[in-house]
Design a protein that fits this description.
The complex is a heterodimer of chains A (about 140) and B (about 120).
Chain A lengths: L7 E7 L4 H13 L5 H22 L7 E8 L3 E8 L23 H8 L2 E6 L5 E8 L4
Antiparallel strand pairs in A: 1-2, 2-3, 3-5, 4-5
Helix pairs in contact in A: 1-2, 2-3
Chain B lengths: L1 E7 L2 E10 L4 H12 L4 E12 L1 H16 L4 E4 L3 H10 L6 E3 L2 H6 L5 H5 L1
Parallel strand pairs in B: 2-3, 3-4, 4-5
Antiparallel strand pairs in B: 1-2
Classes of the chains: A alpha+beta (about 140), B alpha/beta (about 120).
């Protein structure tokens, strides 16, 4: 039987927008003491973008989807994993819209990739989507 | 998130507090548009906004476009350093007029300088 460490967090919650700040808050609580505020904000930003993407695009804002979240903090980094059973993400390289175009969408995954050390996506044969974020810890 | 708005002459000062994300952005967007179609300039006070993501940014871009379409200014004021990272990463700090605080934003707006000095 596996045991959880004191630096590990599991959440199984509805894939709806009110739960995005809940997850951000839980991530914040887990690592706030180990991380400077800029790096903490960057991790929360990537978490927010990934989960909002899952809710709006994978589940298309249905109310019956669920998200399974695991966050692990070790001495050097935080790993955030999200699993869902929504539609597949159409993979494309995140790019920055021109600022003078005043485009209202298209910043999310670009911001997420800029804010953390790694951001990856995969989908398994049974139709589950997996998002993984890693962020190195910097001392507060 | 908390949203409050007040008028000072031809300027709508909208004060936001909390987190501006996909959950809260629609409310902010609605307030921006209420004044954006009335011929007011806007100053958005972000001093107490602790978090903005791309959905929050989108609401501000929407506001900027609405005010510009009506020939009015849409200024941001008192952005916290962590929140400012989001503007810098997206280079939207070049698209918005950003003031260090609300009073300097108001003073820079057309028609407001004389009123302030009077």
């Amino acid at each position: 039987m596996s045991t959880m460490s004191a630096h590990e967090l599991f959440l199984y919650c509805p894939a709806t927008l009110p739960f995005v700040p809940v997850v951000r808050g839980a991530v914040h609580a887990l690592i706030a003491e180990e991380c400077d505020t800029a790096a903490l904000y960057q991790l929360e930003l990537a978490v927010s973008e990934v989960l909002t993407n899952v809710i709006k695009h994978a589940y298309k804002e249905r109310n019956d989807g669920m998200m399974e979240i695991r966050v692990v903090r070790d001495a050097t980094q935080v790993t955030f994993e999200s699993r869902d059973t929504g539609g597949a993400f159409e993979e494309r390289a995140p790019s920055l819209p021109a600022s003078d175009a005043l485009q209202e969408g298209g910043y999310g995954l670009f911001l997420a990739t800029q804010a953390v050390d790694t951001l990856s996506y995969r989908r398994d044969l049974s139709g589950r989507n997996y998002w993984t974020i890693t962020k190195r810890l910097t001392a507060s | 998130m908390e949203v409050a708005a007040r008028l000072e002459g031809n300027i709508a000062i909208v004060t936001l507090a909390g987190q501006l994300d996909a959950l809260t952005a629609p409310e902010a967007r609605q307030v921006f548009h209420e004044y954006g179609t009335g011929g007011y300039h806007a100053v958005i006070d972000l001093e107490n906004v602790t978090f903005i993501d791309s959905s929050g940014l989108a609401s501000l871009i929407s506001g900027l476009k609405t005010y510009r379409a009506h020939g009015c200014e849409f200024m941001l004021a008192s952005i916290q350093p962590n929140v400012m990272q989001v503007f810098a990463l997206t280079m939207l700090d070049r698209a918005f007029h950003i003031a260090p605080d609300v009073s300097s934003a108001i003073a820079s707006l057309p028609g407001a300088v004389e009123e302030q000095k009077a």
